[in-house]
Amino acid sequence: MTHVTPAHSRRHHHWRRDLVELAALFTAVAVADTIANTIAHGPDGRALLLASAVTLLATAGFHTWWARRHSHAPPGLPTSTPDTAAGAPAPAPAAVPGTESGTAVWRMRTTVRDKPGSLATLCGALARHGIDILTLQAHPLADGAVDEFLLRAPGALSPAELTRAVTAGGGSSTWVERADAHDLVDTPTRVLNLATRTALDPAELPLALRQLLGRCTIRTLPAASLAGRPLAEPLPVEAVLEETVMRLRDPAGGALTIERPYLPFTPTEFARARALVELDTRLGPRVPPRRDVLTLPEGNEITVRRAGPGDLAAARAMHERCSTATLEQRYHGPVGDAERYLNHLLSPRHGRTLAAYTASGRLTALGHLLWDGDETEVALLVEDAWQRRGIGSELLRRLVAMAAETECASVYAVTRSANTGMVATMRGLGLPLDYQIEEGTLVITARIAATPASAPAPVSPPRGHRP
Asked: Are the beta carbons of 226 and 337 closer than 8 angstroms?
């Protein structure tokens, strides 16, 4: 609240101040006259004059020291001047280190001892280098703690210098990487957003886990092979944490394996991952209800919506209507194996699938966005009678938009080099494309966004037969 002084109070204040100043003036004149007479007629006039000068200088120095010590202005900022008191703009404050241009944002983890004052020592070491701590998370361990920071540091500070500063502050096993604007969201908000995405769409679980845990590889292990035989590797009965590997029960059946070789998982991260998987388990199978009705150039209407295990019968019927050449171009292998792939492709755990239905309820096309480790694959299958009508292009455009929403830097498609229709569909995206041909297999990679400088070079996708 602003304090306002009444006008009559200000008038009384000015009258008293003028009276005091007038009295001080008369007193000063009388004192000066006395000193002048004493100096002129006394025997020690010169000594008295010198002592008066020394006393005056000492009084001025004491007054200056007292004014600075008891000033209410912040350190380093000028006090008010007559111009600012009269309404003129105040001078701009000095720049705060770390907020000017030329700074960099870093994510850092380090292990500190479980000892009072260890975190304060580390923070002091960072402050001496002009590093600002934006966020801090503590992951308790049995004999210490892993502290995760989001830092704003001077742009000239290299990762090696940052690591040395942390080591000097008592940190060990330090890991540093560049951060971006997405990391500026606080952890509780980010976890709630990931839980919401998982609740709305089961295909979001692998992506939510990846964003929660950072750069990691997530693999799904089905409960049985495509041929229906048990797997050689047993499924975990309970969730398991083994330093850089997590193994969790997949709500859809099978197991989820999460690997991060460069940084061990903490018990806190393990608990968060288990909570997301438990949420997905409790909600059960579900498919987002959104659907769009599109009109083809010849006037036919098709409905595009998300597909799931409930579309398995319609997908099998479409397979039966497709020619052998169409199935071979899609699956790159024996046509008899195509039907066994459908359970895998329609599972939301492995990605997202879009289906195109006619007005009569007939499935005419499927488009898949598949999470392939650190890579993302797109694949299309359009029934022969509905090819070259723009359905494949529409599905691919929507799949790439989904990939962009999940912050994928690129998507790739595997097809035969003679499949000119798929090549034309990829070119129709208007994105930069890379082509690789190996033994008649063509891999087309569309770059959605530039890969961050701190990210590792993308790994070439496997060239073998895949669903």
From this structure: yes
